[in-house]
UniProtKB/TrEMBL annotation:
It comes from Parabacteroides segnis. This is histidine kinase. SMART domains: HATPase_c, HisKA, HTH_ARAC, REC. Keywords: DNA-binding, Membrane, Phosphoprotein, Transcription, Transcription regulation, Transmembrane, Transmembrane helix. Pfam families: HATPase_c (PF02518), HisKA (PF00512), HTH_18 (PF12833), Reg_prop (PF07494), Response_reg (PF00072), Y_Y_Y (PF07495). The modification 4-aspartylphosphate is found at residue 1137.
Amino acid sequence: MMRIRNLIILSILFFVFQVSGKNFPDFWFEHITIADGLSQNYITDIKQDKDRLIWIGTKNGLNKYDGYEMTIYNHIQNDSTSIPNNYISYIYQDSKDNLWIGTNTGLCKYIPEKNCFEQFNFGTTDSPHSNYNISSLFEDKNNILWIGTEEGCLISFDLNTEGVKIYRASQGIKAIEQDKSSLLIGGRNKGIMHFDPIEEAFYQTAIDSTFNSETVTTIATDPKGDFWIGTQSHGIYLYGKNLNKLSGQTILDIHFYKDSFALLGTEEDGLACYNIDTDEFQYINNTHENVNLNSEGITSLYIDTTQTIWIGTINGGINKFDPNRNRFVHLSLSPKYNTPSTIHCVFALETLDNKSILAGLNTKGVYSLNSKTYEIDNTAINRIAPQLSETTINTILKDSRGLLWLGTYKKSLIISGPRNLTEPIKKLIKKSLSPSSSIKYLYEDSQCRIWIGTDNSGLFCYDPKLHTLPGNTKELKKYIYPDLITSVIEDDNHQLWVATNCGLYLYDPEEDSFTRNFLANQEQPYSLANTIIPICPIQDTLWLGTRQGLIKYSHKEQKHRIFQVEDGLPSESIKGLLYDEPNNKLWISTDRGLSCLNLSSYQFINFGLKDGIVGTEFNDMSFEKGTDGTFFFGCVDGIYCFRPDQIKMNPYAPGVIITHYRLYDDSPQNKTNGDISRIPVPSNKEITIPFKQSIFSIDFIALNYTNTPKNQYAYKLENYDNNWHYVGTQHMATYTNLNPGTYLFRVKASNNDGVWNEKGASLKITILPPWWRTTWAYFIYTIIIGGIIFISIRIYTNRLKIQNQLNREQFERAQLEKLNQLKSQFFSNITHEFRTPLTLIISPLEAISNTKGRVSLRENYLTTIKNNAYKLLDLVNRLLDFSKVESGCFTFNPINIDIISSIKHGVAYFQPLAGEKNITLIFHADKENFVCSIDPNIIEKILYNLISNAIKYTPENGTVEVCVTLEKGNLLSLSVKDTGKGIPVNKQKLIFDRFYQLEGDIPNGTGIGLSLVKSLVELHHGSIDMESEVNKGTIFTIHIPYKDATTNETIIIPTSEKNNQPNKEKDRAYLTKMLNEQDIQETNSSSPTILIAEDNHDLREFIKSILNNKYNVIEAENGAIALDIARKDSPDIIISDILMPEMDGKQLCVQIKQDIQTCHIPFIMITALSSETDQIEGLTVGADDYITKPFNPEILKTKIKNVLKSRELISRRYATLSALEPEEFVTEDKDATFLLEIIEFIKANVSNPDLKVDDLSKNAGMSRSPFFKKLKNLTGKTPNDFIRDIRLNQAAKLLLKSDLNITEIAYQTGFTSPKYFRECFKKQFGESPSQYIENQKSLPGK
């Protein structure tokens, strides 16, 4: 890479040196003076440090330059951290990157961490405070810094140990270099000498002695290792060789470039360049007109890392030659002192020959420009066309025959050349073109035809072979208006393209016509995107410049791509295009400067004011490529020219440093100050910022000294920014109110040509928290919070203890209440269980006492009494068993017994009960007989409860299966399986709790059965398991241990009957016999119908037996069946129990009273629930009466009789409604409302003789039969009689209130015969219609 850089710089310098005497302004210096911040213009030394900062020594201060600003360091009295003196004599950077500053009163070292200096005092015992005038510095290969002074001292300073030794020389030391194992020293007045560090002695060689009369100013070592000696007044010497050049010149500095060039700074003749290979000198000074070196006294030379040459001068400051800076030459074409009237706007450029270029100007005709010397001839127009000296020239063309064509603004076309050639053409022009036409563009194609584009007259073509000048506007006019032709060009395939203000056109030579080939904006043909100015064909691609960007157009593929400002263009108004074929780049002129497009990467590089292009606005079609490859672009004030191969990309990525940070105080006291400090960034690249100053800025720079203002920057604050901020040329970042924490600020930069240093620089930033967020604050907070938590925990613990105690008490209270509720429910259920048998004992006794002579009936009643007495006894025994188990008094008495037979007989006992519900009861045992020692009483009670529950909860046609197996370990396994409704999973754990009953269970029962079973199983040292699945059934399995039968005990074999319980099958036969033998009186169809809803079969049969002689009785075993019967048969009265399965009595009553078909039916409740609350609740839901068990049959008969009688009175009341208007009767009673709606319907249709019962039932929303019964029950009349009564009542009103005669009224009220009407009327009112009228009118008040 370094070799490539060196070759680039060498070629540039060689070109500079070769042409500088030929008035070619390629060598151009930038000046840095006190106007730019330098402390003084007398430069003593220049160096670049490790950070690429430029250090400049002057006679009045030290300067640090970063490309943007100059930092000046001066001596401060009594400040040891400042420089010793303002006279800077020497600057040197050692191998450890330390920067040493020599002054005329001592030496110091720069401390970048503190941005200050460390002074060194090399005094001796004889002179402890000696201050030396430092004249030279040099580090040898042993890390010894050698210091030469004007006083003749050579000081050895060990960079590792800081050891100091001072040696006295015979002359002031001006220069030091390494010569093998010794030092080569140049001095004042006595020339050259050596110093041996080992012997610590000065000596002279024979060669040294030849310089005894010289004052050596500098020594430099070339790449070959030869020493070049610069002297005062005798030029330069090559040490040890017979070479002396520039004798008489004072050489102040020597710098080598590559192997062939030595740059020499002279005291009076500027910069000299010596070509070692050719032994030639070239001076660069003000003797050359276009060299802008501002001082010819060169004191120091330095080439930095980007090969920029820094030249320190006497009183001229810094002269900087930057080979990376692009050199655009501006030719203003105007006198030295311009005024607005002398600005030369160039519209056209055309190459005349190898040396001359013609420029067409605005209102100034044509100038001639020497393309080699850039000399301007403004008299060219006088030789070409004197009449155009004050004319605007739009376009110029020199054709292949040597004729010169000039297109003007409103002065038509001018041609210059031999008369014999031009005169015929002029005639054609005069004939075809208007004298005031404006010519926009001229072009000669490969067939030597001249194409003439005009401003508003279309396109013309001069054919020299045919000598014709036809206009081709006929085809174009249908596309173009006005006829504006901007340019014409022929590509490599000899296709002719025409650019216009509305697209691109292609010429067809066979048809001699044009077709539109491309239009960027199809919707708006005259948009700026379709105004094409220049065309540049490159291979098969056309590059089109428009008013809205640059277009790459592939006419074969009919594809295009538009480049605009967002793609990198400086402007979208394209003026001219020139192709740099060797570098494959397209140069573009715009109204905002030049741009170069790399056709390989499609990246733009823009050049404007910062690149020396002062007039950035260029003109349409004003461009030309010279014969030597120089590009010319015409602008509003002259011409810019350059060689494309000299416009190089700056390849050096800049160094990036963060220089300072600024802290701001936004408190009210500092609103006016704002920026309170600008602090250098420490060397460790870490800064800490107080919380109250968390508004801060960071300054950073890119160390690129080539066109520094074009450096680009991007920054990012990690832990805060998600993306990079690309901020252009801004080199400062500001952040406000950051949260406390640690951040990493990163910045990267590019040079003037967009080459980025991606690594960049970074700075660690710590924002301190406020005092209330410091470690100590958090420690205190922790203690406080810990104390609060501790106290809170104590309080919480105490409260929790109290709360737990309260919860425990509440839980115990709730459990107690729950137990009380369960007990209440238990006692309520057991009361019900007691009351039902008692009812069937007491009520038959009452019936017996009232029965005379009917022996069979009394016997049946006695059987019922006996059965229910046994049932009551069974309930009492179960309660006693439960009480014994609870109190621990139930004894375990095992005996020898055939357990299989015992269980089998127990199962057989339940066969009749299972048969009533068509339930299949199955028994299985793995043995026929098995005698063991076991408690049969416990087994019997367990079996009784499990089988009775299974039958109770198994629906009709279900199955109950009892299995007995003998398992290992003397275990008896007894399982009872049913196909009932099952038990939900979440309720299975509660099923063995005492008094617990599932929601929706059959209401009779005590809730102690399974609890008793579990207790009995555990009493027998066994276990019980349950498996259940909803709607599939339940299996209870018990495992009870047994002992083998002992031989000395009696073995009990169960018999078929038990002495302590009734034989239910026998009793059931008695009951059936009783029912069959009852002396039931025949009832006729006119007897009232009573529906009995009772789940207890015996009680239901008893009630039926006492009512059967006077009423038609219908039975239902639960509320759901009763509801269906009531809706179907509409009974006269309903008697219902409350606690029933599927639907209880209360739900049944609600359904009956809410249904319009049944709401009239009286409802009597008979129940064991005798509390006042239960009675009130029963009456509230709509019951007409409430009877508690046990009851007196005569009371029941009497209440039924009274209810029916009350219903008859209500029917009479309803019958009177037929005489009322519906609006005269207001009621909320459903039956009254029902009747009023029927009456209103009949009155609305009273004149309809075909009104029938079906019409009324349909209007009421009921079927015929229920409607008939309901209306008969409410009114005591059939529907037809009811209709006739309404008709007659309406007729009676009409007889009194209308003027109609009797016949008309008969027909009006729906009677088809007046005779039949009179008969019905007389039957209803006891008199004929005419008599009715007379009698009513004769009444008082009528």
